[in-house]
Amino acid sequence: MSDANYIPREEGIDHTLSLMREGYLYILNRRRSFHSDIFETRLFGKKVICMGGNEAAEIFYDTEKFKRKNAAPNRAVQTLFGKNGVQSLDDKEHKLRKEMFMSIMSPEELEKLIIITKEQWQFAVDKWRQMDEVILYDEVQEILCRTACQWAGVPLPEEEVTRLSEDLGAMFESAAKVGPNHWKGRNARNQVEKWVEELVNNVRAGNVQPPKNSAFDQFVRHRNLDGHLLDTETVAVEIINILRPIVAIAIYINFLTLALHYYPEERNKLKSDHTNYAELFIQEVRRFYPFFPFVSALVKKDFMWKDYTFEKDTLTLLDLYGTNHDPNIWDNPERFNPERFANKVENLYDFIPQGGGDYFMGHRCAGEWLTIEVMKVSLDYLVNKMEFELPKQDLSYSMVSMPSIPQSRIVIKNVK
User: Fold this and answer.
1) Which DSSP symbol is given to 353?
2) Which terminus of the chain, N or C, has less C-beta within 10 A?
3) How far apart are CA 60 and CA 67, in angstroms?
4) CB atoms within 10 A of CB 162
5) Where are the beta strands (DSSP E) in 300-348?
6) Which residues touch 332 (CB under 8 Å, ≥6 apart)?
7) How far apart are the C-alpha atoms of 406 and 22, rounded to whole Å?
8) Which residues contact 376 (CB under 8 A, 6 or more apart)?
9) Cα–Cα distance, 101 to 223 (Å, whole number)
10) Peptide bond into 264 cis (omega under 30)
């Protein structure tokens, strides 16, 4: 007699359309209806296990039980991640590539990023003062594109700034789209990869010299386990895996602005105690608002967890948004409350807006520290270094469209 429990199963042939209709809430809705942090369904014609909660996150990031190779849907690879990027690697190969990314997250390099971000924000605010109105999301993408390229050591001609920021934005905006919007992201990736590949070839030919210890410098010189340099295509993919996520912080900065608008009492707290309260506010924005809906992996080998059987090669999704809104973890999770982080004990598996687990050994986003620092600088400008008005507009955001961006992309005017 088996001791295995049956994983709750969603009946039906395929539920891909339900996923597209419910977006960020798809997994959370079923976790609630099944009264279970795990259930089985069918998506994209495949059997899929969906999980959420801190215990599920801990097992999901166990590299003995789950692997990333071939786990991401091809549409995400062709737009968001690129082929052979760090997100798709496992074991020793992943560890070595992840070390390459973490090497540029040193305190010295992060301080350089902060300085560059401040300079680009000041440049932008000076420009906005001459404009009748500003579409914040688009303008911040340009701020972050300039910042990312300067920090990573990627030469960016001024006439290419708008095009590159739009192309990098299209990569993360199109991964879950269909039709022309999806192909826009694929075309953008192809164009940017080709451009970066040319830069890599120029560096290796000695025609271009990136700043010493910059991401570009280190990635071009990085060697695989076999001692060979990364191929040109992979270097380009990984350089983009620096640039694209930094530009994507524009989504969070829109939500910073939205939170300041809807919770005006928070602005006073930030003004009176910005140094300490800013991080609480930022973490709550990252917890409260939608960013990544879920992440995927494949079962590495048969195993049992909580008497549930996981079979090798089963696609498994971890509910990031739902875990950040789990009432078993968070008191009143649908309430915006930065002070919940004041006495929060750090846990690698319950606060996972950009993934969970260990930064150095696991698949947690290498750029999470970077994200927080960029948001700190941006919040300081929004609260302390500029004044602006929000005219009447549609500030709603979708829980279905992924990624979610306020409908108006946040228009501001009378910048001072």
Assistant:
1) B
2) N
3) 9
4) 13
5) 303-305, 308-310, 315-319
6) none
7) 17
8) 114, 278, 279, 282
9) 13
10) no
Question: Average model confidence (pLDDT) for the chain?
Answer: 94
Positive/negative CA dihedral, 252, 257, 260, 261: negative
Judge whether residue 321 has pLDDT over 60. Answer: yes
> What was the pLDDT predicted at 360?
65
Task: Give dist(CA 333, CA 227) in Å, integer.
Answer: 48
Is the pTM higher than 0.90? The answer reads yes
Phi, psi of 316 (to 5 degrees): -130, 135
Report pLDDT digits (tens) over 334-362: 999 999 999 888 889 999 999 998 776 67
| pLDDT for 328 beyond 70 | yes
The C-alpha atoms of residue 178 and residue 75 are separated, in whole angstroms, by: 9
What gap in Å lies between CA 409 and CA 115, rounded to an integer? Answer: 26
**b/e per residue, 168-186, with b = 16+ CB within 10 A?**
bbbbbbbbbbeeeebebbb
Calculate what percentage of the chain has a pLDDT beyond 90.
Answer: 85
